[in-house]
Each structure stands twice: as C-alpha cells, then as structure tokens.
C-alpha cells in the first residue's frame, strides 16, 4: 500500500521554513499476525516539537534527519490481524505526520466511546488540557479567590487554563497578541485581557489589570512576560513554567530578566514541569474535563488545517500566532 509521510529534511535555524520538511511517498508492508493498519484522521502540531528539531540532549530525544516526524495523532483501524484492535476502532498514538502506517499496537490506546468529537483527545481532553489542569492544580496549587496571570492565553494550553481558573473562582488576567483574540477571551468571561503587541510597557499594563497583584503565573512565553510577572507577583506567589515559546526559535542565548532578585524578595516558588511525568492523574483529569465539556462549562477552541501537506504550515503558524485554541491538521 502507498502512503505519505513528512520527514525532517534539515534542522531549522531560527523560525522553521518549508525547506525543513519533505513530503514523501512510502510503501507499507502487508500486515502480519498481531498487527493492524491505521489511517490517520487527525494529527497535532505543538510548540515542544521545535525543541526536538535541535540535535541536543533534552527530556525527549531529538527528531532524526531523514525520518518521519512524530506527534500526537488519532487514527482508524482499517485492516487488522490483532484481536485487541478491530477494524473500525479509533486509536491514539504518537505516529502523526503520516497518512497511514502498520503497527503491532505498542504505545497505542483505544479511544473510549463518547459523544464528544474525537479531535478533542488531541486538545482539551489530551496533552494540552492535561497540561493546563496539571499546572494549575498540581504545580501552582491555585486556590479560590486568587488572581491568575496567563501568557499565550488564547493557545491550546492557555485557553484551557483561563477557563479552569474561572471555574475555580479565580480572577483571570490574560495576555494575547491580537485584538481579535482578546475579544474572544473576554467573551469567555476572562476578567482582563492585555494585547501585549499594543502596549508600551507590559509590566505597567499588568499592574493596571491586577492592582492587587498576581498570585499565580502560568508561564507559556518567557522573556518580557516573565519579567512583567515577577514585577507584579504577590509575596509567596507561584509560577508554573510550562513553556517559553518566545525563545524557541532564538539563534543566540536570550539575556535573562534584570529583576530576578524579586524571586528572593517576594519569596516566590517557580517550578517547571513536563506533563508526561504526571500522566498517572490523567483518568482523574478526563473524568472532570469530559463533564465540563458536555455541560459547556469549558469550550474547546480549535484551529484546523486540511490535509497532510498543510502540516508544516500549521506548525509554523504556531510561532506566528495563527492559532486560537488547539492547532490541528485534519487528514481525511
């Protein structure tokens, strides 16, 4: 059978370009006993993938040049010689960036029966939603009545963090990069939204939005956002460091904030986290999130590109602010 997959053709220098990717045909072998054939329906693109395009030691192995990229995907079993994965079953895996593949089922999970869209298992019910839930509940230990500041607040993780904090009875301050995104977050009930691209001083704008200070900062961006948060944190505040997307494409080290001494003066707790280390709590998270989704308490935002060939555009778009909510590619 002929399939398609996207390879990492070269390592990016700065912002990735189309030249770093290559769409190629591939011939799949006939399935053997204990194997099945998957047709991918959805795939995810995520900022962490940029780090895997650099050949360096990290918490996850780098992508290999000339080999198919990897990432979260949802597929349908279309041929099977595996008793646990019948034809018609929907599965999740990390074998995105390809149209079809043959597998023995290792690291595959059957999707549960649910009236919710299957694509949510790559977004609000998947890694991004779990990241927001983990950062607020297990890392920052956000409490009712506190003030939360979220950067990249219209993204897959940030938009969920804003909504969960509202459900917890907290004041939410959000930072986004466009007036359209700000308007949308306000429609969801976020207390104050800052368009960081239109303010002269982000720290001053945050002080106006949160005159009583910030108790918890959900860090997705880094750089100027991190410095502004430090300026406005209350004593004994907590910072959950999920990502620093502003620095992922830097070609030279970014100078650190000049106000790091505030960490000591304000007795702050700062903790970075990788959500996969908290996956034992995923059943608890999905039970809560599925209920919130079904009742409309949480709204799932998605930006969808069509076709495998559009995956590089979707990925590059993450760093250009083109997504609202989860960035997905629909393959079929």
Helix content: 10-25%
Mean pLDDT: 96
Gyration radius (Cα, Å) is 21 Å
CATH topology of the largest domain: Quinone Oxidoreductase, Chain A, domain 1
Order of helices and strands: EEEHEEEEHEHEHEHEHEHEHEHE
Q: How far is it from the N-terminal to the C-terminal residue, by CA? A: 17 Å
What would you say the CATH architecture of the largest domain is? Alpha-Beta Complex
User: Largest sheet, if any?
Assistant: 7 strands, mixed
Helical/strand content category: alpha/beta
Q: Note the total helix count.
A: 9
Low-confidence stretches: none
Total count of domains? 2
Describe what this molecule looks like in 3D.
With 332 residues, the protein is an alpha/beta fold. The protein has two domains: 150 residues, Medium-chain alcohol dehydrogenases, catalytic domain (Quinone Oxidoreductase, Chain A, domain 1, Alpha-Beta Complex); 150 residues, NAD(P)-binding Rossmann-like Domain (Rossmann fold), CATH 3.40.50.720. It has nine helices and 15 strands. Strands 3, 4, 5, 6, 7, 14 and 15 form a seven-stranded mixed β-sheet that branches. A six-stranded parallel β-sheet has the order 10-9-8-11-12-13, sandwiched between helices. Strand 9, helix 4 and strand 10 form a beta-alpha-beta unit. Helix 2 crosses helix 3. The longest helix has 14 residues. It is globular.
